[in-house]
Write a structure and sequence with these properties.
This protein is an all-beta fold. About 0% of the residues lie in helices and about 50% in strands. The strands form twelve sheets. Strands 1, 2, 3, 4, 42, 44 and 46 form a seven-stranded mixed sheet that branches. It has a four-stranded antiparallel sheet with strand order 5-40-39-38, with no helix packed on it. A four-stranded antiparallel sheet has the order 6-7-8-9, with no helix packed on it. The chain is globular, with a radius of gyration of 29 Å. It starts with a strand and ends with a strand.
Length: about 550
Amino acid sequence: MKYLIRSWVRRCFMGRSLWSAGRRSLQSAGERRALLQLETLEDRTTPSFVGVKMLELVPGPSSSFPKDFTEVNGIVYFSALDDTGFELWRTDGTTAGTYRVADINPGPGSSYPRELTNVNGKLVFRATDGDNGYELWIYDPASNNLQMVDIRSGPESSYPAHLFFASDTANGTLFFSAHDGTHEEELWKSDGTVAGTVLVKDINDGFLGSGSSSPQWFADVNGIVYFRAFRPASGHELWRTDGTEGGTWMVSDIRPGGGSSFPEFLTNVNGTLFFSATHDDYGRSLWKSDGTAEGTVLVWDPATTSENVHFGNFINVGGTLFFTADDGSGNNVELWKSDSTTEGTVLVRDINPSGQSLPRYLTNINGTLYFVANDGTHGDELWKSNGTEEGTVLVADINPASADVRYLTNVNGMLFFSAIHPTYGRELWMSDGTAVGTVVVADINSGANSDPRYLANVNGTLFFRASRGSSDGHELFRTAIATTLTITSGNNQSTTVGTAFSSPLVVRVLDQFGEPMEGVPVAFTAPSSGASAVFGSSHTITVTTDANGLAQVTPVANT
């Protein structure tokens, strides 16, 4: 008898399997031989197995130190170091599509690109070419055109800072501060062109225009951009602009006279502007504004008139403002929330009753607030909250000492972050909000720290910096999702029953960018009864893919 055997192949992703079609049949023949055929399911895009892939910019032990990841038209731009210094780079997620865009400061000197910002499909950032100081630069990917906006002519720097893109203002406008040599640090805007980069208003028009208004803390609310700015007569107060000189004015002198209220953490919560500010009667307190002087009012006055309330971490979660503060009543810095009313501004939970939990890295994922806190028992670990005391809970105790969780980042509803584990060191983790679903993504630097940082979600792929150890340095990484499994070789072989096939069966796993994926467990399974193939003494064997995305086995024909 001749046995026609079609074995089963399955892909194991994080404990789940995708099975192939499989069947077997018998044919008459003069001898007993086995024909092995592999069948796989159609290509899949199910993100069941998540790993990482290194895109090495500088081969060997040197580090490229990539950072400031920003997406423009599906391409990720960032700053990185090679033998030309810190310059502008790009990646499309593939090895071939990762390269330096330009050597802005020619030779080994660095241009130090910073504050990379997507402005209507163009990349705008601060850099220096070595001759003109730090200026605004505009890169148009469509034309591959790179231009400097020389705001302050000559070798001195205009030093553009606090770059903020307001998508609802004048069809998308970039606001920032800059010093043109005449007006010092004032409010500027850009539409992503050289001609469209102009001074909005000389807010601090001091003697001979020599004063700085130092605009910062930008927030966009219904097409109006709010910010903090300085004038000697009023101090640092709340301002607004529609992008025109006439439409730029102070909203309210919260701390009357030359004293400053120092508005900070400006945050849009469903059309209401929240911020912290200082008033002589209330100290540091929570305020809101509708853009008018009359509508700029106190929301919550902590129990202390001190300025040491330590407001921070303002975030909008489902129309509720969450923030951290010390109200002066002995709770220290804990998690608070506000519905914009005094009575609706309350402590969510005193997470650390004997000290302070210092919540930070507040992140909204589908209406649930995730953050890092220390309850005095578990160290700095991952927490979540639905806004109630009983719904504010520890997600997972990753490290009995302290996981020192950092860089919380939402990727399509899954939380990614950096954490320390006693076995793995500091590595990349992910969580679905449950303890069992909080797992290490990859032990990038086995047994030590890969130190993932600068996590950035770009269209569902996480880009970050990490190190596999001293042999590679700190390089560019991204998440890799097992997407496609194909049969590479070894299919349709024939051999005598009881002997091994002459060539191994080889399959390849590719990720979402079509790149080979390392570390994916692939399980080969044959029927357990009748005519079959075996792997040693077993009908199933699991093999992990290598650096080329390949997994291979050599089965033995079995009666």
